[in-house]
Structures are given as C-alpha cells and as structure tokens.
Amino acid sequence: MDSKWERVTEEARRYGYAEKMQDCTLCPRNCHADRLSGQKGYCGQTARIRAARAALHYWEEPCISGRAGSGAVFFCGCPLRCVFCQNSRIAAGEAGREVSVEELSRAFLRLQEKGANNINLVTPTHFVPQIAAALRLSKKEGLKIPVVYNTGSYEKAETLKLMEGLVDLYLPDLKYASKEPAERYSHAPDYFETACEAIAEMVRQVPEAVFEENADGERLMRRGVIVRHLLLPGQSMDSRRVLRYLHETYGNRIYISIMNQYTPVRRLEAYPELNRRVSAGVYGRLVDSAIALGIENGFIQEGGTASESFVPLWDGTGLETGI
Questions:
Q1: Which of 181, 182, 232, 247 has the most crowded Cβ, counting Cβ within 10 A?
Q2: What is the reported pLDDT for 309?
Q3: What secondary structure, in 3-state letters, does 286-299 show?
Q4: Strands 219-230 and 210-213
Q5: Which residues lie closer than 8 Å to 302 by C-beta, 6 or more apart?
Q6: Which helix (H) or strand (E) holds 56?
Q7: Of 305, 122, 118, 151, residue with least CA distance to 218
Q8: What is the pLDDT of residue 210?
Q9: How far apart are CA 232 and CA 141, in angstroms?
Q10: Element (H, E) at 119
Q11: Would you say residue 247 has pLDDT above 50?
C-alpha cells in the first residue's frame, strides 16, 4: 500500500469508519466496493473525501439561504447520477479536490465565520461516516449554526441514522412516484419505495419545523424537513402523485418545495423528451393541484433557471488541499 492510502487508512481507523469503507453498502446500490483500498464505488468515489466547493450559496429556499447565504459544501460523486443532472461534472467526480476529515471540519468553521446561515451538505450520502466525524470535530471547536442534509433521497435509513443528532434540517428530493421514469432517468426502479423510507426516517429524526427570526428580520428555518420536487417535461401526472403522497402521508408536518427550474444544460440524444423547458402554464397547473390537495406549507418558484449561470464553478473554492 502506498503512503497516501496508508494515511487514508490511518484516518479511517482513527475516526471509526474503516469497516464501512472496506465493504461499502452505504447507499441502496450495495456495491460492496473496497473504497478504503482505493476502489471506487457506484458513486464514483473512494474513501477519500472529495468535494468541489465550500462557499456561500444563495439559490436555496429563502428560509435556508436568507440574504447571508447557505454554507454549501458540494461533495463529488452520487449514488443516483440522473441523466438530466445539472451538476453532472461533480456527480461524475470530474472536478473538486480531496480533503481530510480535519480539513472538512475547518471548512465548516470558515463558512460559519463568513456568516453562513447553515452548513449545507450537498449529496453527502457516500461520505456520511467521514462527514459525521468532521461535524463532531467542528462542533467541539464551536460550530453552532444548523446543519442541512441536502440529498436526492436514494438513501438507506440505516445510513441516515449515523447522522442523527448532527443534522438539524433535512432537504430531500422526492423525484418520482412511478417506476418507469425512475428507471429511465435515474437507473433506480426502486427509487420511490427507497426514498419514502428515507424521508420517513428524516421526519422521525426531525419531526417538527422550527423557525427563528434573525437580527435582520428574516424568518429562517432552524429545524425541520423540506421535501423538494422538480417538475420534469412530460411528467405532470407523476408529479401530482408525488404531491398527493407527501400530503396524505405528512400533511403540514413537512414543507414541500415545488420546483420549475429544470433546464436542459446539454442535449440528451437518448432522451429527446427532456430537451425542452417546462412551460409556465404546466407549472402553474401543478401548483393549482397542490393548493387543491390542501398543501399549505410550501414553496413555489417564479421564473426559472435560464442558463448555466446558476451553476457554480467546481474549482475547490473554500477547501484546502487534502491528504
């Protein structure tokens, strides 16, 4: 074993995640990769934490970002890899840099120093044991702002339990209710059942929403669950099924964010139906359906993501060079 993997192994033993990395079953893919020895899992990542950016981010829901911004840490790799992913470069692990547990902890603290409203862990699933260790370190060093777990929801409940007590706010997607689009666009025919179990675990951990008004008069969410749903072209009926399920299951215990920002950032030859935007009329009718269902705690979007200008640079901003 070369020196760099010896250092990775030593860190894994020190923070107690070696066993999970040697035979990885953190996500529902159950790929059993020996990530500790440098093998990449389905997520495309080894045991070394790889992230693309740690910086203030202003494009989440208003109660998350506020005017000061959310302290977003974008992790590389993904257990889903949706064909329409706007962050496909980092999902495929083509950007970013490697950091240690200690360096990630320091990045969290720097974001707090910059005035971030929270620490926003974006696509963290496949690094959960390492992230949990980094959060414990940073909390010992004075991290006090809420922690957000931002995920596509292809998660195992048992993995989410490793974050219990460390996460204040869950921000999951519920992308599909039907098997067909889940299989076609995310290669995950079991997505709905899996995501529903994951969201149920999130709600168990954080059952009530808590808001707090800051010094600037902003009403920010400090605890709770916001489930996001992105309306895709041609999927209005499936979107209605998603909203119905969420409302019938959780009522107004959770918040629902109905998103219209789908943007075809590159041409998908194999998926011609996705090479267009969703019209304002189609989105408006979905919002009307949500109101008719009785959904009260929700967020809607005006306008949309018109270009790649909303996609940050994946240049390792805010992260020190790793081990």
A1: 182
A2: 40
A3: HHHHHHHHCCCCEE
A4: antiparallel
A5: none
A6: strand 49-57
A7: 118
A8: 97
A9: 42
A10: strand 119-122
A11: yes
DSSP state of 84: T
Q: Are 134 and 100 in contact (CB under 8 A)?
A: no
Q: What is the pLDDT of residues 92-136, one digit of tens each?
A: 887 899 999 999 999 999 999 999 999 999 999 999 999 999 999
Banded pLDDT at 5 (limits 50, 70, 90): confident
pLDDT the model gives residue 310:
57
Strand partners, 258: 229, 300
Q: Which residues pair with 120 in a beta bridge?
A: 72, 148
Give the pLDDT band (50/70/90) at residue 304. Answer: low
Q: How far is CA 233 from CA 215, 243, 269, in A?
A: 41, 16, 15
Q: List the structure tokens of 243.
A: 């909203």
Nearest alpha carbon to residue 169 among 222, 133, 123: 222
Residues facing 210 on adjacent strands: 223
C-alpha distance across the termini of the chain, in Å: 15
pLDDT value, residue 92: 83
Structure tokens at 134: 């980094």
Environment class of residue 271 by beta-carbon count within 10 Å: exposed (0-12), middle (13-18) or buried (19+)? middle
For 184, residues 6+ apart whose C-beta sits below 8 A from its C-beta are: 83, 271
